[in-house]
Design goal:
alpha/beta, DHBP synthase, 2 domains, 11-stranded mixed beta sheet, 17 strands, 20% strand, binds threonylcarbamoyladenylate, binds magnesium ion
Amino acid sequence: MKTRILPVSDAAIREACRILRGGDLVAFPTETVYGLGGHGLHSETVKKIFQAKGRPSTDPLILHLPSSDLESTARAGIVAEPIPASARLLTMKFWPGPLTLILRKGSHVPAEVTAKLDTVAIRFPSHPDAQRLLGEFGHPLAAPSANRFGRISPTEASAVLQELEGKIPLILDGGACSNGIESTVLSLCGPTPEILRPGSIAADQISGILNVSVSQRSSLAKPDRPTESPGMLAHHYAPKTPLYLCALPIRNFESRYQYIVYGPASGSVIANVQILAPDQQPSTAAQNLYKTLRNADRAGSSAILIDPIPDSSWAPALRDRLMRASAGTARWDEGNWSLLPRISG
Ligand code: TXA
Ligand code: MG
């Protein structure tokens, strides 16, 4: 199959909708990362998403909605009634935007979308091109990140092409994603709200709206039940080149490795150093993270070393992604880098 890239235009959106109505897949930009979308209420289309990504069918998908109205979402059989008051409050504050809510599922959602769980993930993205596509299509789009399973999420159309060339007919090109890391995933199905995946909307912002404490599952903790948070695998978002996390800012560079430093680097900087956030802003670090990892990966060296992420509201999300992407930690020891593999359990 030939994969086309079309810059977003009226004609491109019409073409995307034609493909989606025919039961095929289209990659499209969101404010977080590019999504691989298909008709979210058609089981056969949803199966194609898992195939194209090489994703296990036990890992459920997010439904991207054409509207932020939870009542009409319930009427369409996507979420079950009654809708929790907390969901209303959060959508009023954070939608459109990078917050995914887990609610009880409605009767029209195919089992393939939710990996047979009785809950469903929903999100109303803020990217104007995603909204245009969803508005014109008029149905929910099931859309995981548009990468091969376990690999780095794409934040540009060219990265989607690297991942899925020949596997999907169309990529809508809406430029670089402004946010850069996947949405916060929040479950409203338990006794208290729980963040299953940290993102740019932080726990204290959510608890500030709900007036209750929000728990956050620790980065590499195993869920109690295998299906409880199926996507939270210990190894994910990973470059092919092993990535090592440094405990202290990198000050020494060896030519055999690729380095990713957080802010402007001091000292004798060599060619194989990339800067994550030239302005030191955590939002810039998030925006650049996946592209920077992808570039470092393409250099073909034996390891990538990355600076620690400083504290900020973005830190839990950035550290979570890096932890999952990493092969271990690196330490400057007696004039050399020692690379210590992660003990995976
Ligand atoms: O920002 C994003 O969320 C991007 C863009 C494209 O919208 N999408 C994305 O999708 O990151 P994906 O499939 O890569 O990640 C979805 C996450 C997974 O960790 C999955 O396990 C979790 O959401 N998830 C989906 N449905 C769930 C459910 N019913 N219960 C618990 N976790 C669920
Ligand atoms: Mg993903």
